[in-house]
Amino acid sequence: MVMRRGVAAILISAAAFGLMPVFASFAYRTGMSVTTLLMLRFAIASALFLGWLGVRGRLGRLTGRQWATLALLGGGMYAAQSLLYFTAVQRISPALAVLLLYLYPALVSVLSAVVERTRMSWTVAGPILVSLAGLTLVVGRLDTGLDVPGLLAATGAAVAYALYIIVGSRVSASLSPSVTTAYLSMFATGSFALLGLASGGLDLGFAPAGWVWVTAVALVSTVLAIALFFVGATTLGPVRASILSMLEPVVTVLATWLLLGGTLTWQQLAGGTVVLAGALWGILASSARGTSPAAEKTAVQASS
Fold first, then answer.
1. I want to staple 44 with a disulfide (CB 3.0 to 4.6 A). Which of 91, 105, 150, 218 is the partner?
2. Is position 304 within any domain?
3. Signal peptide position in this chain (predicted)?
């Protein structure tokens, strides 16, 4: 029964994460900017996370170094990853954006080997080669009308997320995942507020329906999704949780098709399958070295 609850928690979490780019697409249709959406997303999420920790008396005292680390991770690295990913969702199909994002497990495998100064074995190079082969199929010919900046933003989001996981798993190990997530969300809120004010991109003049979609992004695809991931990962362990979390891009592809009318070609679907195969290989290869992306993700979880 406990295992079943763990599996259910991870699958619901993955589905909630998978719906996020679709919710974002609806939010953009109300006139909401990327910066505004992200600022509101993290503001709502951080208020709930910090409030919950405060009620339970689990906020704790952070050292100056921990404050600086969380500011770097949340206000810098994770904010950059989120900005790239949500920009990609605005410019290209959410299904295509999430498939490109899932290059990150293979990248984590390679970066882990570089950081740990281990030999570039086939189990390290293989996942990235498979994922790149899938990427070639997903992207296809660039003269077929695909938005190149959108493709670059999605790929950049995968690279940024892999770097964030590698760095975050090493510098935030002394804090619990729930505390880390709460403060990361808080610092991300500050970054997007400053970015929006500096660039003029912070505008609350969108249509009222936008509040429905930004609330869905914050509550369903952030707070609920992260909380359930913690529950499932604790029960099942990081490797199983990571494998089950690969339901996320499947949900995004199906939701894009059903709710947005978006389509992917058979070549892109085949490429997406190859990308996910590379992601699975990267997860298993990393776990064999004791550095599963899911274990690292749990330590710094805020997901896409």
1. 218
2. no
3. none
